[in-house]
Specification:
This protein has 21 helices and 5 strands. The chain has 457 residues and is mostly helical.
């Protein structure tokens, strides 16, 4: 919902007056509140509402809609509409609704045209790459077995069962080597559970999305930072998964930055193990620091992360102290693994576009931009288990985030056909190259510009 705080509004107006805009997309203003506070999802929603011209409603392209009466009937669940009220949800609407009839349904809730132009660089031309591909994919989905996603369910549930069993053994075993091995297995499984649960967070209500909360995280926060921010504005200044690490790690190239930015790969080794706990502490502090945070954003499932230490204590027969120590070991190791997987997944490589310091007048097709900002790994996409646990099929996932990963692999013939037809920049590499690339990306000061790739659009 659009904020009422006059100080925030004044800051936004002042930034617009100073023309502090997106540097690679000069037609846009610099995102309000991007560099303020604790950079949490609620603050991101507040800042975006200030820039979107949605007037407290829901904006899709240049029209405003009142979806209040539709919230409880929304097939994707009410939470998506609650979180996005007051925002321009054009990218989310386009990427999350493949059925052409959805647009006709939306028209029933039309209120008026927006008064300001969209604060987004992306286009969705009817004959452009993304919409053309989306229509073809919608037809292709009718030929794919409906139960195909069971493969993903089995992997995800199997990881949960293994994690629970291994965590019990880790606290119960008296032999040091058995306990250590069990801790490691539980940690790896916990990290993989979060990656696999990400497959379900993009959709409507389902119990597997709650698996994400097992590590003191919040799937509700992730729906903002990952789904509504990162997925829709990948590697731009509006990407909270990029700005959230600043001023410690800079994923967007900067000419002027602190000296320690060159040592990001070393800094990561110290902060990644504690990210789950630090995020939990940050979220807890906001209950006391930000009025209304508890009632508006805290939900019952935020307590799921406390169930794992309780499980270890009740099933292992160990003392409460020993159970908590075991859980902390598992949690911190899982945190390190998860964020290492995430940072090496697809978006941090010198050849991937990142919002930079020079201007471009290009207004790209959204689907084209997503492919510029993603790089797939051949050695991950060859196994469904690896796809589920290492963010595989990443390009297709960014284009069609609500589809199960088991379904995505069936779309490659159509996808590659349209990439060839529209000269879309689908990129593949190896995991090793992407790992080395993300190290190089933290040292990068000159951005990869869209103007350098203008011919592809």
């Amino acid at each position: 919902m659009a904020p009422k705080e006059p100080d925030f509004v004044e800051i936004a107006h002042q930034r617009a007056k100073e023309k502090k805009t997106h540097v690679s997309f000069p037609q846009l203003k610099y995102p309000s509140l991007r560099d303020e506070g604790l950079k949490d999802p609620v603050l991101w929603l507040t800042g975006k509402a200030m820039d979107d011209g949605a007037e407290g409603l829901w904006r899709v392209h240049d029209k405003l809609y009142d979806l209040e009466s539709f919230i409880d009937r929304h097939p994707g669940g009410r939470e998506w509409l609650e979180l996005s009220k007051g925002l321009d949800v054009t990218e989310a609407f386009e990427a999350h609704h493949l059925n052409p009839s959805t647009e006709k349904m939306l028209s029933k809730f039309y209120i008026r045209d927006a008064k300001s132009p969209r604060n987004s660089p992306f286009t969705f031309q009817d004959d452009g790459f993304y919409r053309s591909l989306k229509r073809r994919v919608w037809e292709e989905l009718k030929t794919i077995p409906k139960m195909e996603n069971r493969r993903s369910d089995m992997v995800t549930d199997g990881l949960l069962a293994t994690c629970l069993a291994a965590s019990t053994i880790a606290s119960w075993a008296e032999n040091y080597w058995i306990a250590t091995a069990a801790c490691f297995v539980a940690s790896v499984c916990l990290a993989w559970i979060l990656v696999a649960a990400h497959n379900y967070i993009h959709r409507g209500p389902n119990f597997r999305m709650y698996y994400f909360n097992l590590a003191l995280w919040s799937y509700r926060d992730f729906r903002v930072s990952h789904v509504l921010s990162h997925h829709l504005y990948t590697n731009t200044l509006m990407d909270l998964e990029v700005s959230g690490f600043e001023p410690i790690i800079f994923w967007n190239p900067r000419k002027e930055r602190p000296f320690y930015a060159d040592y990001a790969i070393v800094i990561e080794q110290f902060i990644f193990p504690f990210m789950f706990i630090l995020n939990f502490l940050k979220r807890t502090s906001l209950i006391f620091l930000r009025p209304g945070f508890f009632t508006n954003h805290i939900r019952w499932h935020d307590g799921i992360g406390l169930l794992l230490p309780i499980w270890i204590y009740l099933t292992s027969g160990a003392s409460f102290y020993h159970a908590v120590v075991t859980w902390l070991w598992i949690n911190c190791t899982a945190s390190f693994i998860f964020f290492t997987i995430g940072s090496n997944a697809a978006h941090h490589h010198p050849m991937i576009f990142k919002d930079g310091d020079e201007v471009s007048d290009v207004t790209p097709d959204w689907g084209m931009h997503e492919l510029e900002a993603v790089m797939d790994r051949r050695d991950i996409n060859d196994s469904h288990f690896k796809v589920m646990t290492f963010f595989g099929h990443h390009s297709l996932h960014h284009l069609f985030p609500t589809l199960d990963h088991a379904v995505l692999e069936h779309l490659y013939p159509v996808f590659l056909e349209y990439c060839e037809k529209y000269k879309a920049n689908f990129k593949e590499t190896s995991s090793l190259d992407l790992f080395i690339g993300q190290i190089k990306a933290t040292l990068k000061t000159r951005p990869t510009l869209l103007t350098e790739k203008k011919s592809r659009y």
